[in-house]
Specification:
mainly alpha
Length: 138
């Protein structure tokens, strides 16, 4: 359930970002201009567009992976835990980048916190027992 909460919060963040795309784009371009003042405006625009693409498309992909593997946990396959750890690590990096640009950074934090809680929950002793009772290893 925590992974589903993280996925829904992530998708909500993407929805709000797309709804306020012009404001997010301006924020990103201002940051790119501040950090790279000697670059041409065309280069700054390309970097800003690439960053916006990473935030929106990357966030959507991460949320879909969390949703997919979060639902797959019910099959009790231990491999889903490994996949979710990798997805969480990627989402952590994405959250750090996205929080600076999206309109609701608290929602990014809520998604990251829910994913972290789900990650911890998957490795508690009761969860290890639940996964072990499946009978198979992967």
């Amino acid at each position: 359930m925590l992974w589903l909460t993280a996925a829904v919060a992530g998708l909500a963040t993407i929805g709000l970002t797309v709804a306020e795309l012009d404001q997010v784009r301006e924020t990103i371009l201002a940051e790119v201009t501040r950090r790279f003042p000697n670059e041409s405006p065309a280069t700054q625009d390309r970097v800003g567009s690439a960053a916006l693409l990473v935030i929106v498309a990357g966030g959507a992909l991460i949320s879909l992976l969390q949703l997919t593997f979060g639902l797959a946990v019910r099959s009790r396959r231990r491999g889903t835990r490994v996949a979710l750890v990798l997805v969480w690590l990627i989402s952590l990096g994405h959250s750090l980048v996205a929080a600076a640009a999206v309109p609701q950074p608290a929602l990014v934090g809520a998604a990251a916190a829910a994913a972290f809680a789900g990650l911890v929950w998957m490795f508690l002793p009761v969860s290890n027992t639940w996964f072990a009772n499946r009978g198979g290893s992967w």
